[in-house]
DNA sequence: CAGTTACT
DNA sequence: ACAA
């Protein structure tokens, strides 16, 4: 299979602009509408303070990432409905298989919904047990200004735009890099049929084992 | 500090 | 820069 070579933004941070074509984006958007009908977006809150995030989130896959006053964690059920997260659609399994470069299956896909004006401040993805597996990010909808630095908060950062269909991998030395979204640019995509942006973040949570098997 | 605010 |  022909695959265009990614751009390496910083060591370990691989970027495939336009990885998904328009049809692939539309199809994934339809998958997500079905998922969000079963696992509605909810507002995460900061540990201890309870301050709400500006993004709303949901998940698919075996585990979902949640945040509330008690802290950050992965859990197998939606915090408001109590239901298991919907399964990961085949298109996402395929994306992980093609880009992640690991035999470990993805366990969690966090769905971040950025309404116009929503932001995500600089952070690390560090709530997993397994850091040898990369984090895979897919963008859908309006273009965003993404920023990535090093493994220390004070490290210098670089910014670039993530557009609908772009894929980004945080692997190796970039797996624990600080990153965030500074801005979403209005009216830069029609894929979602509404203003805003969706970011999908696929992750391996556990080191290995039983999550490979059906329940 | 996956947060907001102030100021260049 | 913050405040715990």
TrEMBL record:
The biological process GO terms on file are: oxidative RNA demethylation
State the free-text cofactor note: Binds 1 Fe(2+) ion per subunit.
Provide the binding site for Fe cation. Answer: 123, 125, 179
Binding-site residues, substrate: 65, 72-74, 127, 153
Ligand binding (2-oxoglutarate): 112-114, 197-203
A GO MF term = oxidative RNA demethylase activity
Domain Fe2OG dioxygenase intervals: 105-206
Q: Oxidoreductase as a keyword?
A: yes
Cofactor names: Fe(2+)
Annotated Gene Ontology cellular components are: cytoplasm
Arranged from A to Z, the UniProt key words for this protein are:
Dioxygenase, Iron, Metal-binding, Oxidoreductase
Which PANTHER family does UniProt cross-reference here? ALKYLATED DNA REPAIR PROTEIN ALKB-RELATED (PTHR16557), NUCLEIC ACID DIOXYGENASE ALKBH1 (PTHR16557:SF2)
* Protein name (record): Alkylated DNA repair dioxygenase
